[in-house]
Structures are given as C-alpha cells and as structure tokens.
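Here is an idea for our session: we take a single protein and study its fold together. Once you have written the record down, we can walk along the chain together.
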Amino acid sequence: MSRKRRRPEFTDPNKQPWRTMPPSWVPLQMLEELDRYGRADADTALAAVETLDKVISYTQAMQMRFMDRFTNARPAVGAPFSKYAAGEIAASLTWSLSAAQKRLNLAYQLVHELPDTMAGMSHGALDLRKAFTFADQVGHLSPEDARKVEEKVLPGADSKTPRSIRDRARREVIKIDPAAAETRRKKLVSERRVKKQPCEDGMALLGAFLPAESAEAIYRIIDTIARSLKTKDETRTMDALRAADPHRPLSRRPQQRTHQNRTPRRRHHADGPGRQPSDPEWLRPDDRATRPRTRRRRKQ
C-alpha cells in the first residue's frame, strides 16, 4: 500500500525557514509545496507574499544581467548596444518597442553604473520599480557621482516607498550637482507634449506634459469654469464638471476663410479715392474742387 503523503504544517513560524532565506529557488520550492499541500493562515500568507516579492526581485535582477549579456553580443559604434537589440527583445517577449528599449537601458545602467542597486535587487531589498525610480533620477550623472548618491539613498531603501526614494535621490543629486536640476528641467521642457490615448467604451485619455506653471494655469481655468457650473441642483461631482464643459470652447474650430465669406477689399483707382475706372464721367467728382483744399492744407 502506498503511503499517503503527509501535508506539511506551515502555520508554525518556527517551521517556516523560507522567511529568513535569501531569495533563490529554495524558498520558491518550499512555497510551491505550501501552495500545493499546506494550509496557511493570514499571517503565513502575508509572509509568503513578502518572500515571493523578494524572489521576483531576485529573478528580475538575473534577467537584467542576461539582458546585458545579450546587448554585449549586439555592439554598436558610439552607443552601448545596437539600436536593433530592442526589436529582438520586443519580438521575443511581445513587448512594445519603447518598453523593450527602456528595459535594455535600465539593464545596462544597473550592471555598469549602479552595482549597489543591482545588488539590492539580487538580495530582494529593491524591486524593479524602486530600481527604475532611482536609476531615472541619477541617469544624467557621471558613474562616480551616481555611486555617491547610492551610498546616501540605498541604505534602508527596502522599507521606503518608490516616491520616498525618488525624493531623497533628487535632494542628493542637487547637493552633488546644483546645476543638474536646471539642466534636467530644460531637457524636460524640450520634451513637452500633448498625448491622446484611446480607452474602452468610447472613452479616451487626454494628457499634457508641460512645465508646472503652464499646467497650473490651465488647471485653474478648468477649475474656475467647473466651479461656476456647480449649483444647488447640480448632481455631478467636481471632477465630472471639470471634464464635462471645458472641452466646449476648445471644440470650436476656427472658421476658415473662403471666397464666399471673405470681405472684398476696396480698390482705389489712381484718379483718387472712391473712383472706379468703369464709372461714367458724370459720377466722377471734379478735381478742381478738391485741389485748392489740398493746397491749403499743405500750406498750413
């Protein structure tokens, strides 16, 4: 008779070695066994989610290293790697070309310029989003200055949110290179744009990447219009009012001038104002009545 496999008891914290293990395939295998046979309460399930997040960061760091090895086989003159490498990644993983290009750029930056950030991912202390947020803030710095920012920001980053890491990295970047903020601002101003993205059910998303003062001015106009429409009988929210009526003045297209609605210019004949060459002789004013007056005005 075959023995029935005993289900492991994972509810006891003392019998959960995967909690303290470094991220690798070993805790993943234990969690797979827990998922298949064991019973987990809320605390155990939460600990499993945390451990799996570290394992995911570990595998993503491994993926970054393999991406860098792939780009090493696609060299290019004057660039870290060939511009066609992103197309191969996009086709293999069914990504968009821009997403593949961003991931390859991040892989190169982490492997060659930010080794501590890569180590944090390998140990499960930083996930991909935190690593991308930090790398984006120090991307315009030299590798030496970027590593100085790493030393200031990364300790304790495992307990920080991506926004907290971004804000702290930005402050350290300004301390190291005060002109970097202005250089970055000018670069972003040159990239300002308006974007339209289609959505489901006949909706669309319209956004603008603008300087802060321009965006604030536009928002105040929209907010003022929305508040003027808010009455006692109005049931729509302020967000709905902001999105409902400001498009009306923008949707009015400027009237194109055509030959039908164009105002004809009045042509002046060389004989004087108001004279047309086709006018009969008796409709033309006498020049003798106007010449003396003209001469008197010149003398005055």
The two ends are 132 Å apart (CA to CA).
